[in-house]
Design brief:
about 230 residues, alpha/beta, elongated
């Protein structure tokens, strides 16, 4: 297991290294929020152990950026000295997966890390990798890329992309996409047009050939520009 520890208390960091490294875990650490976020963006980790109160960015800020700007589903175990229900709700609302109150047992920490990793592996193993030409989308981790370039989409954008990729190159009717997004409670306005435009900006604008096509009166389809059939 490769773990990123973002904690400014050197004694806690030393205890974590002393307990976890002999078990074969690979550890990186950062003592402030900005350094921790940079490591999370640059490297691949199995779990993040994240303190709430940090210099620079707080743990809540980091977790929100992981889930939002970086679109990362990496499991996060949050450490804090605060144990009120309000504090725990704030941690989970920011995107944390588990919560451990200081002082904590290192044995319990290890158990929780292993549980987080099992849940994450289970989610990934149940995922589907969709591919259309140079476009790929992991439906478990919500990572999409075209020609190796990551695509930053909204949750609705990912939903539309999944619909189109699953049926590519067939035309997907508008009402099918709208139902996937909103269910039976579809908005009265032409909200789908706005989301399609945003998807085009991410999917097609940086590239020489368009993949997302509008079929007037019917719906939309996703094509492989290199497919000459």
């Amino acid at each position: 297991m490769r773990i990123l520890i973002i904690e400014d208390n050197p004694d806690i960091v030393a205890n974590l290294y002393g307990f976890l490294e002999p078990k074969g875990y690979i550890l990186d650490s950062a003592a402030n929020g900005y350094a921790g976020l940079a490591l999370a963006a640059q490297n691949s980790y199995d779990v993040v152990v994240l303190d709430v109160m940090l210099p620079g960015l707080t743990g809540l800020d980091i977790c929100q950026k992981l889930r939002g700007e970086l679109n990362s589903a990496i499991p996060v175990l949050m450490l804090t000295a605060r144990d009120t229900l309000q504090d725990k709700v704030a941690g989970f609302d920011s995107g944390a997966d588990d919560y451990l109150v200081k002082p904590f047992s290192l044995v319990e920490l290890d158990i929780r890390l292993k549980a987080l990793l099992r849940r994450a592996n289970g989610a990934v193993s149940g995922a589907t990798i969709l591919r259309v030409g140079e476009l790929s989308f992991n439906t478990g981790t919500y990572e999409a890329a075209r020609a190796g370039v990551p695509l930053a989409l909204t949750k609705t954008g990912y939903t539309i992309l999944k619909c189109l990729m699953r049926d590519s190159p067939k035309v997907v009717p508008r009402h099918v996409i709208e139902h996937a997004i909103w269910g039976d409670d579809r908005p009265d306005s032409d909200a789908l047009r706005t989301h399609i435009h945003a998807l085009r900006q991410a999917l097609d604008k940086p590239f020489p050939a368009a993949m997302l096509r509008t079929v007037p009166g019917l719906g939309f389809k996703l094509v492989n520009p290199d497919d000459t059939a």
